[in-house]
Amino acid sequence: MDIRNDKNKKRKNMWIFIVLTILFLLIVVYLHVPFSPMKSYVEKTALSLKADKPSNELFTEKDIVKLPDPVKRYFESCGYIGTPKMTYMKAFFKNTDFLLSKDKPYAKNNYTEYVFVKEPSRIALSEIKMFQIPLQAFESYIKGKGRMKGVIAKTFTLFDETGAEMDISSLVTVLSYCLIVPNLAIQNYIFWESIDDTHAKATISDCGISASGIFKFTENGEMISFTTNDRWETGDDGIKTQTPWSVILSDYEEKDGIRHPTSFKVVWHHKNDDLVYFNSNNAIFEFH
User: Fold this and answer.
1) Given Cys at both, which of 162, 177, 205, 227 links 210, Cβ 3.0 to 4.6 Å?
2) Does 253 score more than 90 pLDDT?
3) In which band, very low, low, confident or very high, does the pLDDT at 5 lie, cut at 50, 70 and 90?
């Protein structure tokens, strides 16, 4: 009787081991295959936001006649006059240094981003691995609503932020790209104000909310930074604080006759220090 019970126990333990091994292997495969629900959602959302067909219009001097002088100079020096107006942009930032927390080292982030012109919209996907476990974050601004959602292991939600602070923060991020996607800059929902020969202020309005920021240029027309007070930073304690925020651009390169920055730093300006939480030197853009 004891021998029979012992055999049954061994057989049961063997089956438990087999089932757990299969489950472990399935989890490993799932975590390493390219597909993920969030990535699929981003691609479907991007498809829904694309214009029905590409624009046939070209940038002309007439488009920029009312813009502040440094913005005009940017259009001219970067080679946009006479080129097609884009309806959206897709950008890639590979192996970007990204801070998940100011007390932790940089992680490597593969960042994909879309910005759309017809209605000011933006979606982005961060893909990071922590101990070989994927961490993904989705950002969006669509029809007046901002959102940021993070998941781990493609399945478990870490955070899902919405609300008025997220709406304005997400809208001003769209504004920060209006000279990278310059068809945005000449839309009726963006209003420009002159400051001086190397600075201009822009305000974007959509769905009853507005956000503003200041663009800085070199004398030869390169846009080198965008700074705003209309972003909210979420601390480790979950408290949101309105914090000055900048995008710093450099290393312009020419492709197909148009000059683009290839290095981007994104910075929170705290009272006692500046925190660079996104640092990329290999930006790649596609315009459609």
Assistant:
1) 205
2) yes
3) low
The Cβ-side half-sphere exposure at 232, using a 13 Å CA radius, reads 20
User: Which of 56-94 are b and which e, b meaning 16 or more Cβ less than 10 Å from the residue's Cβ?
Assistant: eeebeeebbeebbebbbbbbebbbbeebebbbbbebebe
Closest C-alpha to 179, from 76, 93, 95? 76
Claim to verify: residue 29 and residue 60 sit in the same structural domain:
no
Paired tokens of 270? 């705290």
Q: Are residues 29 and 40 in the same domain?
A: no
Q: Binning pLDDT at 50, 70 and 90, where does residue 130 land? A: confident
Dihedral sign for Cα atoms in the order 91, 95, 97, 100 = positive
Instruction: Indicate if 239 and 119 belong to the same structural domain.
Output: yes
pLDDT given at position 37: 84
Average pLDDT estimate for 92-121: 91
Indicate whether 23 pLDDT > 50.
no
pLDDT tops 60 at residue 33 = no
Closest by CA to 212, choosing from 198, 223, 201, is 201
**Which runs of consecutive H residues, i.e. helices, occur in 78-222?**
164-176
Verify that 103 and 173 share a domain, yes or no. Answer: yes
Average pLDDT over residues 168-189: 97
**Whether residue 111 sits in one domain with residue 9:** no
Q: What is the pTM (predicted TM-score) of this model?
A: 0.86
Question: Are 25 and 63 contained in the same domain?
Answer: no
Domain of residue 6: give its range.
1-33
Same domain, 243 and 187: yes
Distances (CA, A) of 95 to 109, 243, 249, 274: 5, 26, 17, 22
